[in-house]
């Protein structure tokens, strides 16, 4: 293999096979992590660092040109949402790529395993989606004069998660580096059929819009908890794969697709903003598909809806000391959740919500300052929700009033 192609020098990335064999204990079963049909992935230690070692399997349809292609591309990357490339080995029939080890593995594993999926809050999922979107946006626009990269195989399997659930895009064997002024190419589709853009499949034209389509399916996986290749039955209807369910229920009943593990956690405004951009990603009209920059912006809006509503409810919890998911029974009413009581009594009788344990010690000016900013946080009009700077300022005022009383 040439050590320098397209201006990229690869000598510094070469790792001797002997070191890799030592790191994996000769590719032992104990070091093996997974297989995706193309590579066996092993976990190993190289120079006191934990790494992931991808060994192309002998029966793989992956060719030497695909292997060289990945090296040329990934050696250029420098982005927090792209899995860091460490080195490679190509000795004899061994084709090996070494990258940073992602402690939390692939996103697909978290979707398939109920025990892992139940731990992913809606806030976690939004964070992961934003990270993955930023990684793709970098590929589509971040390489300067070198051009743009079309991933061509985007799916949850190739979104890895570090110890902070930061998303890292991986697997670039079939990716393409194309000129900025010619951001598409005729090439046979290789993607998993469940994530495959029908327009790409029919035309044979690979472009960034094909990545956007695949990412749209990943977004729906995240909100539904259903991998694109699994089937689910809703109500009494025939079970179907995720894409078909989205098309059936998008206009009427899409909330039925929400993962039960996050159903009580997700804010409806956040859900609507998220699914709207996800649905535009899978449009059959390429012109309707958003850019990754737009996708990031819309998911961040969904994140803001979720953060503000959670912040508002949590602050009212501090006043009342009863979790938002508990029902509270007042003398003159039926048991209700905290959010409903807040909206019912805010204008007339908000003092009734104060925790009895602090009722005698709370300063009335401190209380009103605190509950006013909390109420603004849960406004249905996003423009009325305060910034974090304003929230901090008001809470400091509440503290000031309370200290005057003491």
UniProtKB/TrEMBL annotation:
Assigned GO CC terms: plasma membrane; plasmodesma
- Looking at the record's lineage, which domain of life comes first? Eukaryota
The Protein kinase domain covers which part of the protein?
Answer: 27-311
**InterPro entries in the record, alphabetically?**
ANXUR1/2-like, Kinase-like_dom_sf, Prot_kinase_dom, Ser-Thr/Tyr_kinase_cat_dom
Q: Which Pfam families match?
A: PK_Tyr_Ser-Thr (PF07714)
Q: Name one GO molecular function term.
A: ATP binding
Name of the featured protein: Protein kinase domain-containing protein
Q: Which organism is it from?
A: Lactuca virosa
């Amino acid at each position: 293999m040439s050590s320098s192609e397209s201006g990229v020098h690869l000598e510094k990335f070469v790792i001797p096979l002997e070191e890799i064999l030592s790191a994996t204990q000769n590719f032992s079963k104990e070091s093996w992590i997974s297989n995706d049909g193309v590579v066996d992935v092993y976990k190993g230690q190289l120079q006191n660092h934990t790494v992931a070692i991808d060994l192309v399997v002998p029966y793989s349809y992956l060719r030497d040109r695909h292997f060289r292609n990945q090296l040329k591309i990934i050696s250029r990357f420098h982005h927090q949402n792209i899995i860091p490339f460490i080195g490679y080995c190509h000795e004899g029939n061994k084709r090996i790529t070494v990258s940073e080890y992602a402690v939390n593995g692939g996103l697909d594993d978290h979707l398939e395993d109920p025990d892992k999926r139940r731990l992913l809050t809606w806030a976690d999922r939004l964070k992961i989606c934003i990270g993955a979107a930023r990684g793709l946006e970098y590929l589509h626009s971040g390489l300067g004069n070198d051009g743009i990269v079309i991933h061509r195989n985007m799916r949850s399997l190739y979104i890895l998660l570090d110890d902070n659930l930061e998303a890292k895009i991986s697997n670039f064997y079939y990716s393409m580096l194309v000129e900025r002024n010619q951001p598409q190419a005729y090439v046979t589709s290789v993607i998993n059929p469940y994530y495959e853009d029908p327009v790409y499949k029919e035309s044979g034209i690979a472009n960034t819009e094909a990545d956007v389509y695949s990412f749209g399916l990943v977004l729906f996986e995240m909100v539904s908890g259903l991998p694109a290749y699994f089937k689910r039955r809703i109500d009494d209807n025939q079970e179907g794969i995720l894409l078909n369910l989205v098309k059936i229920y998008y206009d009427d009943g899409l909330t039925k697709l929400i993962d039960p593990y996050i159903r009580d956690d997700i804010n409806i405004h956040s859900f609507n903003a998220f699914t709207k951009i996800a649905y535009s990603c899978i449009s059959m009209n390429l012109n309707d598909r958003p850019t990754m920059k737009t996708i990031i912006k819309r998911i961040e809006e969904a994140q803001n809806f979720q953060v503000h509503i959670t912040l508002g409810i949590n602050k009212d919890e501090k006043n009342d000391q009863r979790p938002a998911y508990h029902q509270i029974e007042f003398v003159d009413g039926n048991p209700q959740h905290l959010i409903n009581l807040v909206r019912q009594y805010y204008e007339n009788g908000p003092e009734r919500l104060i925790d009895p344990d602090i009722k005698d010690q709370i300063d009335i000016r401190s209380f009103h300052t605190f509950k006013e900013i909390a109420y603004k946080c849960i406004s249905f009009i996003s423009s009325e929700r305060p910034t974090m700077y304003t929230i901090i300022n008001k809470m400091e005022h509440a503290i000031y009033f309370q200290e005057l009383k003491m």
